[in-house]
Amino acid sequence: MTSPVYPGRRRILPVLAAALALPAGPVLAEWRDIPYADVTRMPLGLAAVDPAHVFTYRFLVQPGKGETTLPADLQLRLQVAGQVHPLAIGAENRVDMPIRKDWADSGATLQLNQPKGRVNLSLSFDARTPPGTRMRYAQLAESGPVLERGIREMAGMMRLFAPKVRSFDLRFALPGPQMLTLTPPGGKPTVWKSDARGVLNLPWNAAWSPAEVVLSAPLKGLDPIMK
Length: 227
What we know:
Elements: E1 10-11, E2 18-21, E3 32-35, H1 36-39, H2 41-47, E4 55-63, E5 76-80, E6 83-87, E7 94-95, H3 101-105, E8 109-112, E9 119-127, E10 134-136, H4 137-140, H5 143-155, E11 165-172, E12 179-183, E13 190-193, E14 199-203, E15 212-215, E16 219-226
C-alpha cells in the first residue's frame, strides 16, 4: 500500500494505507529519527476495532526515487526509553516492526542510518481472503466495516469527512475471465464479471450480508476501495 492517503478512488489494500516516504535531501552519514507514534498510528488504530484480526500489516523498506537497490549497510532500530532495539529486514524487504501502544505513548523513535531520500518505508494492509468458492457476502466483505470503523477511530472529530468503503476489488487465483454470482435469500441471482485485468469489482452493501456468493475460482486477494 503505497498510494496517497486520499485519492478519489484508491486501492486501500494492499493500499490503506499510508506511505512514509523520506524526502530527498543532502547525503549525511548519520542516524535519522522518525516518531514511532507516526509509524504505528494506523496499525494501532485498526487494532482497536479489529479484535478478529481481519487485517494484517506489513512494513516494507524500498529503494528511494532514482535508486535500484537498498544500501548494503542499511540498518533500522528503535529507541525506547534509552534502550536500542535493532529491527531485522527479512524476505521481500519486510521489516520486523513491533506494534506497541506503550512505546508510541512513551515517545519512542524509529531510527535509520541513511540520508533522506535514499530509502522509503511503506506500510501495507492486507484483508483476510476467504477460502473456497462458496460463502456468504458477509464473510467476503468482512473487511469493509472493520476498515470504516478504523478510519473513524483515527479521524476523530473529522470522521464525518472520512472516506467510506464503496466496493471491493477481487483478485482470482486462476487466470482468465472470472465471475461472481450473488443470490439474496428468496431473490434472483446477480452476476458480476472480471475486467480485462482479471479483477472483479463488487459493490459494498451491508444489506447483502445474508446473500450467498458463488465464485468461478478461489480468490488470492481482495482490496477494499474507498472514496
